[in-house]
């Protein structure tokens, strides 16, 4: 680990000023400290933001849910409002990491976490994300766990978060505070596909701080849930996952929100699946037909060809689980 | 703890340094121990340590010495007593940025100055001589370093010590009440829930956290909520029984 200076800030303005001058925010630190030890991350200054008042979970005036950036994964998952309104959020969190890490890691940090691609984490390997222009060792390397959607010739790394998949499905917004004030960014625009600049991962401007993630109000009742498929039963990143939320009234699906994880360079929203569901009545045939669209546009690599079909089956099963529940 | 073994934690897990890579933080842990308010040191639960007289070389200092002689190249730093001084930093004559932090460890107030890179795990093991918490992966993947910070279980290897101002830390050494083991420690013995013992301190502290959180409704629930603690001997069945037994008595 390289030496760094450390400062703890007590209000958001102070934080933004420190970051504008090159400081790097640290909250739970579960990704950052790990990557600093691997020398993948080499910040010169850490700005500790855990003293900031960003720890509330509130229902907004319009009936949405605002989760403060510093609420831990464990607290968010256990929160009664979250569990009642958006089970897909609490389920995705409880299927993430370990109890220890969930106690440490925050919601803001979770969506900022960096890929688990082994070539990214190995400073002796070529990686355009870590070292732009050096190449992508995963393209012709061991790429079983890598992405099949949203990839480019420069990067095929997945985004590892589970709750980000739920946020993508529910069309959340990321609330930011920067030197030029506040702004809200739709989740779909916040995390960036690699393209030719895989080193640029979020639509953040210099010094901007995540203050909250807000899930908009959706028609109720809204049934939702998260399914994660992985190499071991617990404490493992997703090979594939599906976040599903359905608003069913009068026996007809009125609204559908579906996204996939473990397969995309960013949490992968599935509009084709959603379109296939809206206006239809739940049935096994519908679930299978809609899920057939889940891997549209997939570009598998040498070792992850299995992911396209696994994704379709994951989505189908989770549509059935959520759609058939009473 | 029975079966705990500092050899693996201390010598074999020292990271190999790549050429040109910065020093691992375990090499540069101890800047100075300024203003140690040496409180009552809690009675050690490590049976090996407690049987050794204060003047005899402990197993730990013996290992440190042999490492210094035989393994200095591997460690990549100088070893002076139990204090590591980073070779690169010493040559450059520049001290890495450090912080002063006051925290409570197992009920005792400690004030230390640490290199900002120092993890809580290294602070405990290399600075405060609390070697019960183990360094398995040093990456938050194995749970051997689990301690309670402000009553919540965390990976101490991913926790920067400099950030722990006013924190309350409980390690495996702080669970027993004098000579009376914590019920979960006793349950691990009764259920024979370990073999090599390396993961055991982390398992027990994590189990204490799991019980406090109330995730002990069934063996399946315990398994899921204890999944952050890896046991390479595969003692999971008995670990789950020990947690279940202790939760049931509450």
Automatic annotation (TrEMBL), chain A:
<dbReference type="InterPro" id="IPR051312">
    <property type="entry name" value="Diverse_Substr_Oxidored"/>
</dbReference>
<dbReference type="InterPro" id="IPR002346">
    <property type="entry name" value="Mopterin_DH_FAD-bd"/>
</dbReference>
<feature type="domain" description="FAD-binding PCMH-type">
    <location>
        <begin position="1"/>
        <end position="220"/>
    </location>
</feature>
<dbReference type="InterPro" id="IPR016169">
    <property type="entry name" value="FAD-bd_PCMH_sub2"/>
</dbReference>
<dbReference type="InterPro" id="IPR016167">
    <property type="entry name" value="FAD-bd_PCMH_sub1"/>
</dbReference>
<dbReference type="InterPro" id="IPR036683">
    <property type="entry name" value="CO_DH_flav_C_dom_sf"/>
</dbReference>
<dbReference type="Pfam" id="PF03450">
    <property type="entry name" value="CO_deh_flav_C"/>
</dbReference>
<dbReference type="Pfam" id="PF00941">
    <property type="entry name" value="FAD_binding_5"/>
</dbReference>
<protein>
    <submittedName>
        <fullName>Xanthine dehydrogenase family protein subunit M</fullName>
    </submittedName>
</protein>
<dbReference type="InterPro" id="IPR005107">
    <property type="entry name" value="CO_DH_flav_C"/>
</dbReference>
<dbReference type="InterPro" id="IPR036318">
    <property type="entry name" value="FAD-bd_PCMH-like_sf"/>
</dbReference>
<dbReference type="InterPro" id="IPR016166">
    <property type="entry name" value="FAD-bd_PCMH"/>
</dbReference>
<keyword id="KW-0560">Oxidoreductase</keyword>
